[in-house]
Amino acid sequence: MVLEKQIILFLNIVHSSVKQCMADEFKDGGYNLTPEQFLVIDTLWMEGVLTQQQIADITLRDKNSIVKLIDGLESRKLVRRVSNPKDRRQNLIKVTPYSLSIRDKVTKLAYASVGKIIGDIPQEELEAFVATLARMEKNIDPESDLVALARKYPLNKNGYGQTV
Fold first, then answer.
1. Cα–Cα 20 to 30 A to 115, which of 28, 35, 97, 126?
2. Contact 154, 41 (CB under 8 A)
């Protein structure tokens, strides 16, 4: 197989497998969460109350997909929408007390799935892989800087997440 085809095929397969691995880990732990929902709730745990647009900006997703993810989190009683008193056209997204009560367990499950995914791959290979992914994204979008984004978000509040 031509290297270019392998890259596309393998990225697609691994992307799907990573999402499934995380979803299975959450399910086995007793939580009905998708990896995308975890990304949103984890962002809120680390950053605090945010608008839907801020969540979209931080997670590099379009606003419509964020609305659907928040709908799912709201139906699971993990977040709630409140009107922004400064701009009633905006919703602020807040985590619920229930969400905060499961934060440690869910975060451990997420890290466990990442541990399973990276397995015994040496640190230097992982760092090279991340750098390569960042370069690929920069080739697609010259304005993109994933390394800078990783340094900016999350801010590592409350001991959650890691900065690069």
1. 97
2. no
Q: Are strands 79-84 and 87-95 parallel, antiparallel or unpaired?
A: antiparallel
For residue 92, what is the domain's CATH number?
1.10.10.10
Strands 50-51 and 87-95: antiparallel
Q: Any idea what the Cα angle at residue 81 is, between residues 77 and 86, rounded to 5°? A: 155
User: How many domains does the chain divide into?
Assistant: 1
Residue range 137-154: mean pLDDT, rounded: 82
Specify the pTM. 0.84
Q: What band does 153 get if pLDDT is binned at 50, 70 and 90?
A: low
Is-contact 62 44, C-beta < 8 A?
A: no
- Whether residue 24 lies inside any domain: the answer is yes
Give me the amino acid identity at 7.
I
Structure tokens given for 105: 């367990």
Q: Is 67 helix (H, G, I), strand (E, B) or coil?
A: helix
Residue range 7-46, pLDDT digits in tens: 999 999 999 999 999 999 999 999 999 999 999 999 999 9
